[in-house]
Amino acid sequence: MKGLFISIEGPDGSGKSTQIENIRNFFADKNIEIVFTREPGGTPIGERIREIILDNSFKEMDYMTEAMLYAASRAQHVAQIIRPALEAGKVVVCDRFVDSSIAYQGYGRHLGEAVEVINSYAVKECMPDVTFLLKVDPNVGKTRIKANRETEDRLEHEKMAFHREVFEGYLELEKQYPGRIVGIDASMGIEEIRDEIYRKLEEIIK
Ligand code: TYD
Q1: Full set of structural domains in the chain with CATH
Q2: Cβ of 70 below 6 Å from ligand 1
Q3: Measuring from atom 14 of ligand 1, which residue has the nearest CA?
């Protein structure tokens, strides 16, 4: 495919939103048009699925149901937005992608390899070229969320043990895909993190 596919990952409260703004600014300053999108969501169907997944009142949601809903949202997202954009040679920047499912559902929910299998049907080899992984200790992440927001969604509301496992999952992924995943210590200052991301982006677009 001709385009460039970038995803951004990290545990809840890793400062992902701030760095996404920086990535958008990076491309805007260079007059490079990007397709910015997010998961779960990114399409009208995906946004409806997102409402179901994050709804705090669905306490009964089975973990496999959850994993399949994320994958369903992703299948639509790849088919409708990501693949066509990449085929047209565009830069796609996606807030979370399949690594989130592997970390949250595979590790956090202990669904293991089933998550990879389900998602292989959803993405059909449409994988990011580069993934920025913001690494922050789950305790720090949780404190940041509490400080910034009054309510937590269904996933954020999970116990600390869950968030620890999600984080472990991310660290495993980083080891498994060193060529794709760029791990960044997100306990650094906002500007330092931004500079590290910008350095890598400069390298990529060269
Ligand atoms: P969102 O509000 O987008 O959170 P954030 O700002 O942290 O990205 O909510 C997405 C939540 O869904 C977040 O807790 C991570 C979780 N998630 C999964 O568990 N699996 C997935 O495949 C994806 C994409 C997200």
Answers
A1: 4-205 (3.40.50.300)
A2: yes
A3: 155
